[in-house]
Write a structure and sequence with these properties.
Chain lengths: 383, 145
């Protein structure tokens, strides 16, 4: 059937009108949305400016009088929450205690259960952070309220329970930074009942990521070390968590764990032995020198590289004869660490390096790395 | 302000000389405001700069007795600012500097102190402790000077 040509013009006309109406509608909606956003931003700026002045008055002039901050309307409470969040990472001490009073006094924590399950990952992470920063699980001096009121209906000075338990599921959050914030919140509580889930979360990560996450585990403090000693399975069966143990001993400079570190050196795991040697370098106990020296001929270069650093730290100038053979090691990292140890030893080490650098009969690799480290030290004014 | 209340909250053991001026270099206006108000309560004159560049301009223009600076800032960071200040001719080159940083690494602390900062505080900071440290720095620099 042929297309009726007489309809073409009206169809085009209506289509154009429809398109114009659609475009006009979209522009109108965009304008309204932009207007609302601008208005919200203006309102936020005005609120922040007013609250900044009120906050400094509250912190330094009227503090200790509960409720002296001034009223905040119900509609602006979410804005006020974000406003307070800006101070979480900068203010501590007496002023922070006043901020905590303000946060709890205004009941800003009441929305935490919903916020921990929010669709927006930023909101979930912020909620976990607030629980940690404002120490919502910390016992207070008064008796706990009836179970029916717990954990979310808080009253000033009353113990709140269960907040950190609500953070636990966030360790499985699909967004990495949310899980990271949740782990930080749990470790900052220093409560070892969260040690197992946080450690499991760390162990799920790749090896190179785990060392980065060591900072999170450090939040538990040195008490985590005896807990790990008691609760980890044998290093012969599973050496990986013990790598974290060794690194934590180093970062906490926990001398009491030295016997356990030496015991771990017997475990035939290259990564574990290298981590233990790193910890021994930090603990710097000269008594362990002979034990460290026994690994100088290890077939694993990762171990020899750590031995090259450790000998200089543990042995002082007397380590020079033991460091010289490592200068001819086939692996560059071992030679570089040995040369660096010699530079760090000062006069005796630098003399040995200069002799190696100038002696045409010395090993070619040893001569090259000796020259390179001497130049490096000279550029930095260490010679 | 109620002086009795102020005394209860912050016992005043320090006697800052009149017209003592401190330059607060901080890119976060909220933190800068808190520090500014607290230092003004001490009777100090407070100048605020948002980064190292602004701080240097103020330093060339005004008489400043002490500096407290953040480490991480746009345009010019605190580390660079310390180096620039130390390159100035005395007495400006010897102004006591307190560095504030949210980075807790030992390496950064050593780096800042080696660059010429007189003291270092890791964030979050207690403003009370900060004031006390500034006072010690001021006392020491004037005793030495």
């Amino acid at each position: 059937m042929p297309f009726p040509h007489g309809l073409l013009l009206p169809i085009l006309r209506w289509a154009t009108l429809g398109l114009l109406a659609l475009t006009g509608g979209l522009v109108l909606v965009g304008t309204i949305l932009q207007y609302r956003k601008d208005r919200q931003n203006r309102h936020r700026i005005a609120c922040y400016q007013a609250w900044e002045t009120q906050l400094t008055d509250y912190l330094f002039k009227k503090g200790y009088e509960h409720g002296s901050f001034g009223p905040v309307s119900w509609a602006d409470r979410w804005l006020f929450r974000d406003f307070l969040a800006r101070y979480q990472s900068t203010i501590a001490g007496q002023e922070f205690e006043l901020l905590r009073d303000l946060y709890l006094g205004m009941g800003l924590h009441a929305s935490l259960p919903q916020r921990l399950k929010d669709r927006d990952p930023n909101v979930r992470a912020q909620a976990a952070k607030e629980i940690s920063v404002f120490r919502l699980d910390e016992p207070a001096e008064h008796a706990p309220p009836p179970v029916t009121e717990r954990p979310w209906r808080w009253k000033p000075g009353v113990r709140m329970e269960g907040y950190l338990d609500q953070v636990l599921p966030l360790l499985d959050d699909p967004v990495p930074f949310v899980a990271h914030t949740a782990a930080q919140a749990l470790t900052h509580s220093r409560s070892l009942r969260f040690a197992a889930p946080v450690l499991t979360w760390v162990m799920r990560e790749e090896l190179y990521q785990r060392e980065r996450l060591l900072r999170v585990l450090e939040g538990f403090g040195p008490d985590l070390l005896p807990w790990m000693k008691e609760n980890l399975e044998s290093p012969n069966q599973n050496p990986e968590p013990w790598i974290l143990y060794a690194l934590l001993v180093g970062s906490h400079r926990h001398r009491e764990s030295l016997p356990r570190l030496l015991w771990l050196l017997d475990v035939p795991s290259v990564d574990l032995r290298a981590s233990v040697l790193k910890a021994l370098i930090i603990l710097a106990d000269p008594e362990v020198y002979p034990r460290v020296l026994s690994f100088a001929a290890s077939p694993a270069w990762e171990i020899r590289a750590q031995v090259a650093r450790a000998l200089g730290v543990l042995g002082g100038p007397s380590a020079v004869p033991d460091l010289l053979p490592l200068m001819t090691d086939p692996v560059f990292e071992v030679r570089r660490n040995a040369a660096q140890s010699l530079v760090d030893l000062g006069h005796s080490g630098v003399s040995a390096l200069s002799w190696l650098a100038d002696d045409p009969a010395s090993d070619r690799f040893a001569r090259d790395i000796a020259r390179e480290r001497l130049e490096w030290a000279d550029e930095r004014g260490h010679l | 302000m109620d002086l009795v209340e102020r005394g209860r909250l912050f016992p005043m053991t320090r006697r800052w000389p009149a017209q003592t001026t401190i330059l607060v270099v901080e890119d976060d206006p909220a933190t800068a405001k808190i520090i500014q108000v607290r230092l003004e309560m001490e009777g100090l004159t407070v100048l605020v700069a948002a980064n190292g560049m602004e701080a240097l301009e103020i330093l060339h223009r005004e008489q400043v007795d002490m500096i407290t600076t953040d480490l991480m800032m746009p345009a010019m960071n605190g580390f660079r600012l310390v180096q620039e200040v130390r390159d100035l001719a005395p007495p400006k080159g010897r102004i006591p500097i307190l560095l504030l940083s949210s980075n807790h690494s030992e390496q950064d602390m050593v780096r800042c102190l080696a660059a010429g900062a007189d003291d270092y505080m890791a964030k979050p900071i207690s403003v009370q402790v900060m004031v006390e440290r500034l006072w010690r720095l001021y006392e020491r620099s004037h005793r030495v000077g």
